[in-house]
Write a structure and sequence with these properties.
- With 116 residues, the protein is mainly beta.
- It has strands at residues 12-18, 29-35, 38-45, 48-57, 63-71, 76-87, 93-101, 108-115.
- It has an 8-stranded antiparallel beta barrel.
């Protein structure tokens, strides 16, 4: 059976968990836009002054993107991420993210964000 196509356009997400080496927190809010299979978003909050991401949505609704952000210390950070969706019983979307910094130590981590 084909998975139900998720449309991420105009959805708002909030971070609910993150690895210690990540910068998002429960104060970080993401505003997603989708045009066809192209995904982009802006985000800010907590230690992030401004962030943006751009990528694609695949046939299983997974997101593949690169992100860039400026943190509260005015450091520019970037990385890449793959997010796997889960539709919650109340219809909201939860994204399980596996990411890796492409700056500094190139460490990786996992986070979860949920639709608000």
């Amino acid at each position: 059976m084909e998975p139900v196509k998720i449309n991420y356009n105009n959805l708002v997400f909030k971070a609910v968990s993150n690895s210690e080496n990540g910068e998002t927190s429960s104060e970080t809010v993401f505003h997603y836009k989708q045009e066809g299979n192209i995904l982009h978003a802006t985000y800010k909050g907590g230690s992030i002054l401004y962030g943006s991401l751009v990528g694609t949505v695949d046939e299983e609704n997974r997101l593949h993107f690169r992100y860039n952000q400026v943190n509260k210390n005015y450091q520019m950070r970037s990385g890449l991420c793959t997010s796997t969706p889960e539709v919650l019983p109340d219809g909201r979307i939860r994204l399980y993210e596996k990411w890796q910094w492409t700056v500094d130590e190139n460490s990786s981590g996992e986070s979860i964000i949920e639709e608000v």
